[in-house]
Structures are given as C-alpha cells and as structure tokens.
Amino acid sequence: MRKNGILHTGKKLVMLVLAFASLNMFAADLDLWKNSTLNKIVQKGELRVGLEPGYMPFEMKDKKGEVIGYDVDMAKKMAKELGVKLTLVPTAWDGIIAGLITDKYDIIISGMTVTQQRNLEVNFANPYLVVGQTVLMNKSLEGKIKTAQELDKSGYTIVTKLGTSAEIAIKKFYKNAKIVTFETEADAVSEVLNNNADAFVYDQPYNLLFMADKGKDKLVHLDKALTYEPLAWAIRKGDPDFLNWLNNFLRQCQEDKVVDFSNELYNKWLVDTTWLKRVQ
C-alpha cells in the first residue's frame, strides 16, 4: 500500500512539474509575442520601412519628390495585408542597418542583397528576387573587351557604389585593375560616361534600365552575371513571429496565380520602362 501511495504521489509530482513547465513556456511565448515587431506594428497601426531612394527600379524619387518603385509597391501591399498605414523612412545606405537595429524603422525593404556579413547583424526573410552583378563598359572598349574577366588588367579603372555587394564582388573579382568607389550609383556610372573610368559594376536590373535610357548607344552592357545575389527584407534578430509572417506573406504573393502580385510587379518595374518618364 505504501508503495502504491508513493507511486501515486510521484505521478502527481511529475504532472505538476509538467504543468508548471507548460505554464512557463506559455508565459515565455506570450512575452515573445508582446515584444515582437509584428505585434507592435499591429498595435501602433503603422509599418515603418527603411529604404534608400536612388536604386532604380526598386526605390527612387519621381519628379514630384514621391518615392516610387518595386519595393515601394511591395511595402504598400504588405501594409495593406497588415491593416496598418505605411511610413517610408528614407535612409542613407551606409547607415541603413544601424537604423534598423536602433528601431528607427521595423524592416528594411531596399533591394538589399543577402550576405553572410550582413546576416551577422540582421535576419533575412526568404529572397523575393535574385539578381547578379553585371558590367557597363565604356564604348571605346567595344570589340577589344568581350568578357568581364578581360578588364582585370593594370591600366583599367572599375567603379561602383560604396558599401554595396558590388563593391565586395569587384574586390574579389578584380585583383589588377584599379577600383574606385562613389557615394551613389549615378556618380559612379557617370565616370564611365565621362570617360574617367572603363567600367561600372552593379546590379543587373539597374544596369538594364540604365542601358534603356542614359546608357543607350554610349555604353556596352556585358550582361552575363558575375554573381548570385538574392534580394531579401531585413529585420532585427530574435523575432521569429515577424519572420514567419513575412515568409508566409511572400509565399502568398509568389504562388497565388489568381492574384499574381509578384509577376505584376516584375513586369511593371523590370520589363516595362514607361515609368522612367516619371523620374526624368
């Protein structure tokens, strides 16, 4: 009898311990949700998006000063699905991750390439687009240079934007050519247009659009991508609820064939170039 009593008491104790552990887990999950960015966005009724206007066709200012582009349309869709208002926070690229970490905005939606170095500071949702670095070359080299590799010689100058994945790529790719970086894409590519540099390396979508406009008949596009670069949204670390929502939102946008939002955006900003008239 005493043995049965001890056994019965032991079972009760185990059940109490399990119940206590479950309560602690529930409380921890509740605290995690309360502190999640997703919950705060819903409670405030506002989604704050950090971006750098100037990266065509993802985010740029039109003639009226309004920020438009692929990422802006995606951010509007995201805010609509959350049932909140959208606030765009224009930010210089070299401080955009710091701004996220210090809570100046909730998310970075700004054509950001996923890199291992950036992933040490922020978490990324699943990629929404994959691009690569291509080369816009001075017209004077047409016929002499046929591949990007042939530009890696002493005497050639390669330019790009400071602090971008393009800078990382060309420093790995070009060991003999001179590398010069600039604060903006426009400043960098202008060096090639003005015959002060031989080539500009940058993301393929930007280069395609530049060739359809200012670079037409003035530059040569070596359009074979040098790199594999997935673009993704960045959020602060330690926020699984927000990351889960973003990945599900993205999957819905990409897989829904009735409301094919991702394809609609791609055609609007990366295929059709009529929007260029709004920014010229």
From TrEMBL:
Subcellular location: Cell envelope
Species annotation: Arcobacter venerupis
Main location: other
This protein's record includes keyword Signal: yes
Keyword field: Signal
Segment forming the signal sequence: 1-27
Molecular function GO terms recorded: ligand-gated monoatomic ion channel activity
SUPFAM superfamilies per UniProt: Periplasmic binding protein-like II (SSF53850)
Organism lineage string: Bacteria, Pseudomonadati, Campylobacterota, Epsilonproteobacteria, Campylobacterales
Domain Solute-binding protein family 3/N-terminal: 46-272
Record-annotated Ionotropic glutamate receptor C-terminal domain positions: 46-272
InterPro entries (alphabetical): Iontro_rcpt_C, SBP_3_CS, Solute-binding_3/MltF_N
Name this protein carries in UniProt: Amino acid ABC transporter, periplasmic amino acid-binding protein
Gene Ontology terms: cellular component: cell envelope; membrane
Family of this protein: Belongs to the bacterial solute-binding protein 3 family.
